[in-house]
Design goal:
It contains twelve helices and no strands. It is globular and about 60 Å long. It is mainly alpha-helical and about 230 residues long.
Length: about 230
């Protein structure tokens, strides 16, 4: 199951290589680009025919389908929602920006592999597309528009040139971005609910749990500010 495999890989990647990712981010960005190029060639040239099925299913599949990049985004989400005093949160938070950029790069590869088919259909044969693919493709375009500014402003060199308030406003795009990822996933999975019920349940628990934690954290911050103002 792609979500489970991807989450395990993402956790191993983030916690096993966290220090190296923080120290040599450029290396990991370059490797991510090379991975995207390799996966794209693998599928677009039918190279997968020459490899065993297990390799396509468990090695390249999570990257092609966007499951691995989604798993990285989930880690980024929870890094900002969990208790900042926890060791696991601290370890995630220190590489949150780098994980986000890597996830964005790999997502662009996912968009390319599927987009070469669905984007032309959307623009030239939209009336012939299945509803789920039509909706998913439109949402993909919106996701890309949200993701690119988030990705660009995650680079420290860009962030340093921005006013803190402006940077925070841009980064708030992450909330509709995360919400739309979940909607996008459900758009693809729900028509096959009898087969994808486990994936649907897993993603619903993960994104639902994040929403509860994030709203709870926001309420605590709001209450704390009001308390400070009241007694100052």
């Amino acid at each position: 199951m792609y979500p489970v495999v991807s989450l395990i890989l993402a956790l191993l990647f983030a916690f096993g290589l966290g220090n190296q990712i923080k120290k040599y981010p450029g290396v990991f960005y370059t490797l991510s680009v090379l991975l995207v190029v390799g996966i794209s060639i693998y599928y677009k040239t039918d190279l997968w025919d020459a490899f065993p099925e297990w390799f396509t299913t468990y090695i390249t599949g999570p990257f092609k389908r966007g499951a691995f990049s989604t798993a990285l985004f989930i880690l980024v989400m929870y890094a900002g929602a969990l208790n900042p005093k926890w060791t696991v949160t601290k370890n995630l938070y220190k590489v949150r920006g780098e994980l986000s950029i890597i996830a964005c790069i790999i997502t662009l590869g996912h968009n390319f592999i599927y987009g070469t088919k669905h984007f032309p259909n959307l623009f030239f044969h939209a009336n012939e597309m299945e509803l789920k693919y039509l909706l998913a493709t439109v949402m993909t375009l919106i996701l890309i528009l949200l993701m690119l500014p988030l990705m660009i402003t995650s680079f420290p060199a860009v962030r340093k040139k921005m006013k803190p308030q402006t940077w925070k406003k841009v980064q708030r795009l992450a909330y509709p971005f995360f919400a739309l990822i979940y909607i996008h996933i459900m758009t693809v999975f729900l028509p096959k609910a009898s087969q994808k019920w486990l994936e649907i349940a897993l993603y619903t628990i993960i994104f639902g749990g994040y929403a509860v934690l994030r709203v709870g954290k926001a309420c605590k911050i709001h209450m704390k500010k009001n308390t400070v103002v009241r007694y100052s």
